[in-house]
Amino acid sequence: MKLTKVGFEETQTAYTSGSQTARAWTEQWVHNQVYCPNCGSAKIDAFPNNNPVGDFYCANCKEEYELKSQKVAFRDKILDGAFRTKCERLAANNNPSLFLLNYDLRLLSVMNFFVVPKRFFVREIIEERKPLSPLARRAGWIGSKILLNQIPEAGKIFIVRAGLPQPKEAVLLKWKLTLFLRHQGPEARGWLIDVMKCVESIGKRDFQLEDVYAFENRLTKLYPDNRNVRPKIRQQLQFLRDRGFLDFVSRGYYRLKSEP
Ligand SMILES: [Zn+2]
Questions:
Q1: What distance in Å separates the CA atoms of residue 46 and residue 126, rounded to the nearest whole number?
Q2: How far is ligand 1, taken at its centre, from the CA of residue 35, in Å?
Q3: pTM score
Q4: I want to staple 196 with a disulfide (CB 3.0 to 4.6 A). Which of 48, 52, 114, 152 is the partner?
């Protein structure tokens, strides 16, 4: 199996200044080194520049990807494009999956590279920014932020972590583990993702129903109209079991399929 190389190609554009060069490096690296996490195809292709849909696509399975790269590691929030466009694309379910890459310019190397599958993009993780001031060139324009900290770990699939390429099999497996979300409507997906986050917050592979009930208040705040949060939690756990995300060990006892 071809191993992902984390270094940028030496022969590329000499480093002149700023983000332009880094952008060229990272795009070429993705094109040369990254396989499609959806189907495992060895290569993904770049869209022509300024394509509104995304930056890369897989010719084999047609999955589309947008690339964001920066020097510092991605933390809680990521600046993104126009808020309205973002919401429209979410509603139409045609947003791309997101590649997030952070690099070290001194080492000319990729430090972290992970993908957030598009199924994890729900309305709640898009934050509306303040309109640009009347003095700005694009006065009144409203941007957005992606709330990375609201996405469960199951939705952050690392291909390179802390400079180390992760096993391809593990990457493809983690992608498949939540593929069922793709076929859920926005509301059903929201509930499943929120219950996933609660389960992850427990921090153990083996847990009990009572551990998830401990998040009843958090879920009630998120879904004030729902007066049956506990039954809803049980229903979500059952759904996650049926889709292979976790196992029922015995009554009230559960185990995640993969380490949290
Ligand atoms: Zn593919």
A1: 26
A2: 8
A3: 0.91
A4: 152
| Apex 73 CA angle, 198 and 48, nearest 5 | 105
pLDDT score of 1:
40
Q: List Cβ neighbours of 83 (8 Å cut-off, separation of 6 or more).
A: 126, 128, 129, 142, 143, 144
Q: What is the mean pLDDT of residues 90-108?
A: 89
Q: How many angstroms does the Cα of residue 31 sit away from the middle of ligand 1?
A: 13
Instruction: Compute the distance from residue 46 Cα to the ligand 1 centre, in Å.
Output: 13
d(CA 33, CA 234): 42
C-alpha 229 – ligand 1 centre gap (Å): 38
β-sheet with 246-250: strand ranges across: 206-208, 253-256, 246-250
Asked if 247 contacts 254 with a C-beta cutoff of 8 angstroms, the reply is yes
For residue 39, the model assigns a pLDDT of 97
pLDDT at residue number 94: 85
Across the chain, how many H-helices and E-strands are there? 7, 13
Question: Is residue 76 classed as helix, strand or coil in its secondary structure?
Answer: coil
Ligand 1 centroid from CA 57, angstroms: 8
b vs e for 6-32, b when ≥16 Cβ sit within 10 Å of the residue's Cβ?
bebeeeeeeeeeeeebbeebbbebbee
- Pairing status of strand 97-104 against strand 64-70: parallel
Three-point CA angle 153, 78, 61, nearest 5°:
60
